[in-house]
Design a protein that fits this description.
This protein is of the alpha/beta class. The chain contains 14 helices and twelve strands. Bound molecules: pyridoxal-5'-phosphate (PLP). InterPro entries: Cys/Met-Metab_PyrdxlP-dep_enz, PyrdxlP-dep_Trfase, PyrdxlP-dep_Trfase_major, PyrdxlP-dep_Trfase_small.
């Protein structure tokens, strides 16, 4: 069988249909064929749009990028093979030897490692400072400081960065303000409306939402920066797979509903835990007893987030009973899944720290971070009530 535009081996890949699919087709094709060298010229010169080789770009990645661009109110974002690929694209793709970057002192673990180990190896100096204290960040600025990287709500103590103060500082000092918006999501917070220059997401978490795909995204307000990030990402091979993008798009279709539901339940859970004997303290940015409550309501409005942290009395022994008794809840190092997950920083994300350093951060053996999912709220509160009672009585 041979048709006009196929070889013997490759007939036209899709049978003709006068109607169209309502679901984005999955396009795993690595290569895209052109009609003539002139047609390819038109594509490379940007006179027409087309794909060539999937590391350079493909339809499924563009669909996800456009969706996130719209959510963040920008254009030209780059989808990457993981959230860390997005962080690396921003830090390694835009900085050069001799530059200096300031990072928040409580970033995602791998971002901290990139700052502490890999950037210095490449000749990029780094300093960590508290992003809720603009004076501390200002004190770390050097003539060669190019970038400040922060998360809006920190992991796992849920401190809220002074984004407004940092944005002003960055604008005055010609420094790029980079916001990792993974925890807060564009539903809870839109960094560009608060003066950010670059936004990063781990799509893996709430946006895709089903713990079955790893993907990231980086976007700048300045199109020239987006071009540099795209070239770096393509050159270093951090392009995402079409299937991952296809899955992420499907997850993102229900993201707003999932976020709202999870956030409402998180607020209920925080209040519920605060009333329970056996709980030493509860951290939730939208509660009036949160140290940054005013800033949280200024930045997040009523949106809040789906993360709640708390401290159980009884140390490691109680923590072991709690995770066993929390029926149906996975004790697993992730967040943003449809199911509620528990994380225990002392044995996972913060295990490399000394006990003293953990204490200084408030991360005792009884400290848990909860990513609230989509369970029926009353049933979830009941699971927590039972597990806390058994663990601490
Ligand atoms: C998970 C996460 C990342 C890294 O994303 P991956 O998709 O796991 O590579 C970066 N920043 C934050 C805040 C995260 O939670």
């Amino acid at each position: 069988m041979r048709n006009s535009k196929g070889s013997l081996m490759r007939p036209d890949p899709l049978p003709y249909s006068a109607s169209r699919p309502v679901v984005t087709p999955l396009s795993p094709s690595v290569v895209y064929a052109s009609d003539t060298p002139d047609a390819l010229d038109d594509q490379y010169e940007g006179r027409v749009h087309g794909y060539t080789y999937s590391r350079e770009g493909h339809p499924n990645a563009d669909v996800v990028a456009k969706r996130l661009d719209a959510m963040e109110g920008v254009s030209g974002g780059v989808v990457t093979s993981s959230g860390m690929a997005a962080v690396s694209t921003v830090l390694i793709g835009l900085l050069k030897a001799g530059d200096h970057v300031i990072g928040a002192n409580q970033l995602y673990g791998r971002s901290l490692r990139l700052m502490a180990e890999d950037l210095p190896r490449l000749g990029i100096a780094t300093t960590l400072a508290d992003p809720s204290d603009v004076k501390a960040i200002e004190g770390a600025i050097r003539p060669e400081t190019k970038m400040i990287l922060v998360e809006v709500v920190s992991n796992p103590t849920l401190a809220v960065a002074d984004i407004t103060g940092l944005a002003k500082l960055c604008a005055d000092s010609n420094i790029l303000l980079v916001v990792d918006n993974t925890f807060t999501t564009p539903r809870g917070f839109r960094p560009f409306e608060h003066g950010a220059d670059i936004v990063i997401h781990s799509i893996t978490k709430l946006l895709a939402g089903h713990s079955d795909v790893m993907l990231g995204y980086a976007v700048a307000r300045d199109p020239a920066i987006n071009d540099r990030m795209r070239v770096f990402c393509v050159t270093t091979g951090m392009t995402p797979s079409p299937f991952d993008c296809w899955l992420a798009e499907r997850g993102m279709l229900s993201f707003e509903l999932r976020f709202d539901r999870a956030q409402e339940t998180a607020a209920l859970l925080a209040d519920h835990l605060a009333e329970m004997p056996g709980i030493k303290r509860v951290i939730y940015p939208m509660r009036v007893d949160h140290p940054d409550a005013d800033r949280a309501s200024e930045l997040l409005g009523s949106s809040g987030c789906n993360m709640v942290s708390f401290e159980l009395s009884g140390g490691r022994a109680a923590a072991n009973i709690f995770t066993r008794e929390a029926e149906g809840l996975n004790f697993a190092p992730t967040l943003g899944d449809v199911g509620t997950t528990l994380s225990h920083p002392a044995s996972s994300s913060h295990r490399a720290l000394s006990a003293d350093d953990r204490t200084a951060l408030g991360l005792s053996e009884g400290f848990f971070r909860v990513s609230v999912g989509l369970e029926e709220p009353d049933a979830l509160l009941q699971v927590f009530a039972n597990a806390v009672r058994t663990a601490t009585s």
